[in-house]
Write a structure and sequence with these properties.
The protein is an alpha+beta fold. The protein has one domain (5-125). The protein has helices at 46-52, 58-73, 79-82, 86-93, 114-125, and strands spanning 5-14, 24-32, 37-42, 101-103, 107-111. Strands 1, 2, 3, 4 and 5 form a five-stranded antiparallel sheet that branches. 25% of the residues are buried.
Length: 127
């Protein structure tokens, strides 16, 4: 039986009107130091977004989340932050913000396969 390893995760939220503090979940970021894994998975439900606000453009949010994905994967398109090591990129992605795209507080757990755990968390909290 494979060993379980500690992971940390945060839920990505869209907060269309920050002053109202209403949000809905659109993704998950998962970090596992021992497996050297940092992954993100997201999906914005256009219908749900429209029910919260017709002023926020889906394409704009998609572009921002693609930038988060570039940072997460350490892509050259992730800029200076994308060049940081895994823990620093995770901390940057999960830092507290008062913008339209926010992340929840960080939670932890144990798993055998971080990629599979990311998929499970995404299905549980987003879909």
């Amino acid at each position: 039986m494979p060993d379980k390893v500690k992971y940390e995760f945060s839920i990505i939220r869209i907060v269309p009107k920050v002053e109202r503090e209403e949000f809905f979940n659109v993704g998950v970021i998962l970090f596992c130091r021992r497996k050297k894994y940092l992954g993100v998975k997201y999906h914005i439900d256009a219908t749900k977004l429209a029910s919260f606000s017709c002023e926020v453009e889906l394409e704009l949010l998609e572009n921002y989340l693609k930038a988060w994905t570039n940072v997460c994967h350490g892509s050259s398109n992730g800029g200076v932050i994308g060049e940081m090591d895994l823990p620093d990129r995770f901390r940057w992605l999960t830092a507290s913000r008062s913008t339209i795209i926010q992340s929840s507080m960080t939670h932890s757990g144990l798993c055998e396969d971080p990629a599979e755990e990311l998929k499970k968390l995404f299905e549980a909290f987003v879909l």
